[in-house]
Amino acid sequence: LLLPPPVDPKPFDTKDENINALVESLFGAGSNGLTSIKPIAARDEGPPEDEDSEPELELAKAAPMEKPKTLKTGMRKVKRMVTKSRTITKSIDEPLPVKLVEGPWLTTNTIEEKLIREKEVSYRVGAVVEKNVEGGGVLVRVEAELPWNIVLHWGIVPRGARADVWTLPPEQWRPEGSVVGDTGKACETPMKKCENPLSDRIQMSYAELQLGNAPTAMRFVLKENGGEGRWLDRNGDDFVIPMPEPAYASTTLDLTGERTKEAIDVATAAAFRAAELHLDSMDEVEEKELDMNMQVEYEVATPPLSEDDFAPAERIQKPQKSAVGNGREVLLQGFNWESWKAPWYQAVERLAPTIAELGFTVVWLPPPTSSVSEQGYMPLDYYNLDSRYGTKEELKGAIKALHDNGVMALGDAVLNHRCAHFIGDVPGTYNKFGGKLPWDATAIVADDPNFHGRGNKADGEMFHAAPNIDHNQAFVKADLEDWMSWLMREVGYDGWRLDYVRGFWGGHVKDYMEATNPQFAVGEYWDSLAYNMDALDYNQDGHRQRIVNWLNAAGGNAGAFDVTTKGILHAVFERQEYWRLSDKAGKPPGVMGWWPSRAVTFIENHDTGSTQGHWRFPRDKELQGYAYILTHPGTPTIFWDHIFDNNWGHLHKPIEDMIRIRKQSGIHCRSEVKIVKCEQSVYAAVIDDRLLMKIGPGHFHADDAWDCVLSGQDFAIWRKKKDRSQPR
């Protein structure tokens, strides 16, 4: 504080050098004066992005609905931000360059600091879905353990609609006190408070809904009623509760002589889907005495290494096996594009008995290694098996559970490319690798346009998002063979799904298969089909020939996904041109028709469908597609969503029946196909003189030599009567 002087002071020059002289006289030589402290920006009230600690919240089957349910606890680290201020006052008694009032000067300095702390907090959220036996439909109870007054903001997904559609529920489904939301597509229902048996400090809130049979799912988020008006969702998405499917109705004859129970119990399905339900954490402010001289230590955790991690790899020495198992395998793709968001290995371990009961003999698991991308297809350190799907020990647990139920496990081996850890000799180019395999640019093909490799020229097509590995380098091939052999010993893989095999010569695959001796292996050779303008060419021999050439180069030691058959099925259903399902020789037109034992058929996978949708199968034609591949030769593949995701609940029971029919009829990868009708609107074929099948809206009638064992919209399957004495 400066008091007014008794006399007018000498005029003071405001040039910079004079100001600096004044400052130096006040604070000493070398001072740059006082630095102004900028105000701290307003705190962002949104949840912190803490992707590495997403909780697992399960929907559990509950006891009587009037009592609160015991639910699993999800733990999440929450960042706490505290802004503290301190005022420092000190007395300075020094001569002034201008004669003012004598006496001490008081200087005030405000210091502001941010303190980031972490603390584990837990919230409980759950839902119970029960059938309403008396009134029909389902009863849904949503519970939340949160320290607020809560409103349930919810809507329904009508059957046949897209999974992300919100629709306002009918008025008779809305509980008392509900109002229509601002968008007109959702209902807002206040949640009631009840006693929390798990905690005396945090209240429990619940809402009970009575829904009919119409919706496919219920979507909801939670909203704070009053207060700060905070929203709680699933990391930017909605919570989704699948509803039970209506009873599956068809002319199906039970294949076991007994009535089959419903495909998936509602509560079991809901519990499985709960792995995808996540709660966003909230910022919390905690008061704490601030030590201005506090020293902050950062602790970096590194996983312990055992001697086994650096032990010389031993090659697996076993009798050579077939690349397609016993020829009667049924393959399940054991994940989708979003599976990394859940503790996936744990989910597979839980479902292993169900997978076996449904008739699957092989499960293709996601890429196991650490990766730049969450899904695992941009591998970084091959020997680090802690991925977004779970830990190394959880992976081993999932594979053990599959083995205990008689199911083989395939590892998804990404051999074409690998992401580098460091910038190499070329500025700004990541082409120097770390981890146990610290390769340099000599491990990258010389003609990679993005990563300046110093290896040999590529012998396949380029993948532009990561360095393309040179498999012609002896050290690279030896390292990859050792790594694959180590994976089979360490976690128990039985075989491989080989990613992007167009990127390198099939002869390298032959070497890798001979080094690891898998029980089953399949490569992804995804190539473009032949088109004339916007219409698919009838003759796709060139396309399937390229796949067969790759199979030949691999020595027949692996199968290949029958992309040709998938592409033709698209045209069949999109244009109603069933005549495409016979080539000029009267055989199936895909790889199935030329090398059926090496054809791994499919209609959808994580790339073509799921949330990517790069080449989605024609909607509502999925059962016709499965009726085709599950009755024909080759090894059929079922996509995870089509058998376990309740958004595709109408497919579950028919697919289960088709798998059972295939096994009971002895259909295998080399079965013989006799096409009996192939016209504009209908296709029919006899397989091994045991099964008769038809797809398409056109007319086809089976004679009395056949029993119909399964039928649905535009498809039917018959089995030959056992007591028929004379063939026709």
Keywords:
728 residues; alpha/beta; 8-stranded parallel β-barrel; 6-stranded antiparallel beta sheet; 12 helices; 28 strands; 19% helix; 23% strand; globular; disordered N terminus; disordered C terminus
Describe this structure in words.
- The chain is an alpha/beta fold and 728 residues long.
- The protein has twelve helices and 28 strands.
In short:
The protein has 728 residues and is an alpha/beta fold. It is built from 12 helices and 28 strands. It has an 8-stranded parallel beta barrel with strand order 12-13-14-17-18-21-22-23. Strands 4, 5, 6, 9, 10 and 11 form a 6-stranded antiparallel β-sheet that branches.
Structural class: alpha/beta
- In the sheet with the most strands, the strands line up as 12-13-14-17-18-21-22-23
| Average pLDDT number | 78
Oligomer: single chain
Cα shape: globular
The largest sheet, given as strand count, sense and whether it forms a barrel, is: 8 strands, parallel, barrel
End-to-end distance: 114 Å
Q: What is the helix tally? A: 12
Percent helix: 10-25%
User: What is the β-strand count?
Assistant: 28
Topology:
Layout: H1 16-27, E1 74-92, E2 105-131, E3 138-145, E4 150-158, E5 179-180, E6 187-190, E7 192-194, E8 204-211, E9 215-224, E10 231-232, E11 239-242, H2 266-273, E12 331-333, H3 344-357, E13 362-364, H4 392-404, E14 408-413, E15 422-423, E16 430-432, H5 474-490, E17 495-498, H6 506-516, E18 520-523, E19 531-532, E20 535-536, H7 541-553, E21 559-561, H8 563-575, H9 591-594, E22 599-601, H10 622-629, E23 635-639, H11 640-644, H12 649-665, E24 673-678, E25 683-687, E26 691-695, E27 706-712, E28 715-720
Parallel strand pairs: 12-13, 12-23, 13-14, 14-17, 17-18, 18-21, 21-22, 22-23
Antiparallel strand pairs: 1-2, 2-3, 3-8, 4-6, 4-9, 5-6, 7-8, 9-10, 9-11, 15-16, 19-20, 24-25, 25-26, 26-28, 27-28
Helix pairs in contact: 3-4, 5-6, 6-7, 10-12
